[in-house]
Write a structure and sequence with these properties.
Elements: E1 6-10, E2 14-19, E3 26-30, H1 34-46, E4 50-54, H2 57-66, E5 71-75, H3 83-92, E6 99-102, H4 107-117
Parallel strand pairs: 3-4, 3-5, 5-6
Antiparallel strand pairs: 1-2, 2-4
Helix pairs in contact: 2-3
Length: 118
C-alpha cells in the first residue's frame, strides 16, 4: 500500500509538510529539536494531517497569526518564547485552538523534585 504523496518545503525558520489525504486538518508543531520535529511530522503525515513546523515560540506565534490551524502541539522549553508564553498569547488573542503541551523531565530532575518535596 503506497502512502499519500507529500510535499516538503524547507526554510530557515519553517518547515511545511503536507499530505493530500486530509488537507483540511492542519497542525502546528513547535519544537526546536529537528529530529523530534521530523519524527512527529512523519507520524502525523502518515495519518493524513497537514503539518507546519516552527523552531521557536516567536516563529510559532507568527505562524498562528498568519495561518489557520486546528491544533497546536508545542513543548514548553523553547527559545525566544516558551510554550507557556505561546499558550498565553493564544488565549489572550481568544483563538479557539486546542493545545497539546509536551514536557520532558529527566530522571535526575524528577528525583530532585521528589526529594525536595519530601
Amino acid at each position: 500500500m503506497k502512502s499519500a504523496p507529500s510535499r516538503e518545503i524547507e526554510s530557515s525558520s519553517r518547515v511545511s509538510r503536507q499530505c493530500q489525504a486530509n488537507p483540511a486538518f492542519r497542525i502546528l508543531l513547535v519544537d526546536d529539536d529537528p529530529d523530534i520535529c521530523q519524527l512527529n511530522s512523519k507520524a502525523l503525515l502518515k495519518h493524513g494531517y497537514e503539518v507546519d513546523v516552527a523552531e521557536d515560540g516567536e516563529t510559532g506565534w507568527a505562524e498562528l497569526q498568519n495561518n489557520r490551524y486546528n491544533l497546536l502541539i508545542t513543548k514548553n522549553d523553547l527559545p525566544k518564547l516558551t510554550g507557556v508564553g505561546l499558550l498565553k498569547k493564544v488565549r489572550s488573542a481568544c483563538m479557539p485552538l486546542p493545545v497539546i503541551m509536551v514536557t520532558h523531565e529527566s530522571k535526575s530532575s524528577a528525583h530532585a523534585t521528589r526529594s525536595a518535596s519530601g
